[in-house]
């Protein structure tokens, strides 16, 4: 009981810092989810180009960033770029590194959804004089976005969980504050259990929101 009392006391004392860390985690997750989605759409659009060189470059980009461990990418930017005279803050490194990584995954999800479409509708649009950009904006993108909701949701969940590695580049997000709490009283099990509960609660909120979105955006004729 004394251990729990000590932990509870330290938790209350450090709660402002922990809440600040949680805010930073949510902020980072929201930013990289949005930037990763927008960049992923751009990469996906480029992958549809008839230019073989551009398509090869896009495929190389996706393979490179999906294949590289995220922590290696963050370390490469955080510790490597200063040797070239480029120094970024931990937050900037996290946003930049995560966005490059997340965009590659999102582009792959959108491509998979695109491959499942009936391409006859794109041919019909071309026959009616639609430009490639109009076809992408009005026909392709709305459908692949709707079909990719489950995959994109899983990516947002992954972004939330992966944000915990940002403490390794000195970004004081939620898990970094939990580490400080655990180091204060050496109640590691209690501190990490608290972190697990908080992450689980946040993931549950994302899943519920995604299910509601998925129901509203379901495409007739497609089943999950």
UniProtKB/TrEMBL annotation:
User: Which Pfam family, any one of them, does this sequence belong to?
Assistant: BPD_transp_1
Family named by the database record: Belongs to the binding-protein-dependent transport system permease family. HisMQ subfamily.
List keywords of the entry alphabetically. Answer: Amino-acid transport, Cell membrane, Membrane, Transmembrane, Transmembrane helix, Transport
Q: From which source organism is this entry?
A: Methylobacter tundripaludum
For membrane topology, the record states: Multi-pass membrane protein
> What's the protein here called?
Amino acid ABC transporter membrane protein 2 (PAAT family)
Q: Which GO terms describe its cellular component?
A: ATP-binding cassette (ABC) transporter complex
InterPro entries assigned: AA_ABC_transptr_permease_3TM, ArtM/GltK/GlnP/TcyL/YhdX-like, MetI-like, MetI-like_sf
User: PROSITE patterns attached here?
Assistant: ABC_TM1 (PS50928)
MF terms from GO for this chain are: L-cystine transmembrane transporter activity
């Amino acid at each position: 009981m004394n251990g729990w009392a000590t932990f509870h006391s330290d938790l209350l004392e450090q709660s402002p810092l922990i809440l600040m860390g949680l805010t930073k985690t949510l902020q980072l997750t929201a930013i990289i989810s949005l930037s990763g989605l927008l960049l992923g759409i751009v990469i996906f659009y480029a992958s549809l180009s008839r230019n073989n060189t551009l398509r090869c470059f896009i495929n190389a980009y996706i393979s490179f960033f999906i294949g590289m461990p995220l922590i290696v990418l963050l370390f490469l930017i955080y510790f490597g770029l200063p040797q070239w005279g480029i120094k970024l803050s931990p937050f900037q490194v996290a946003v930049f590194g995560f966005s490059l990584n997340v965009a590659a995954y999102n582009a792959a999800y959108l491509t998979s959804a695109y491959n499942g479409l009936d391409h006859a509708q794109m041919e019909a649009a071309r026959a009616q004089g639609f430009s490639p950009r109009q076809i992408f904006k009005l026909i392709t993108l709305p459908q692949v976005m709707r079909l990719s909701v489950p995959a994109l949701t899983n990516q947002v969940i992954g972004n939330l969980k992966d944000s915990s590695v940002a403490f390794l580049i000195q970004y004081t997000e939620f898990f970094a504050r939990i580490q400080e709490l655990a180091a204060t009283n050496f109640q590691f099990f209690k501190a990490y259990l608290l972190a697990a509960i908080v992450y689980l609660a946040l993931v549950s909120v994302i899943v519920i929101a995604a299910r509601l979105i998925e129901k509203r955006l379901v495409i007739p004729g497609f089943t999950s």
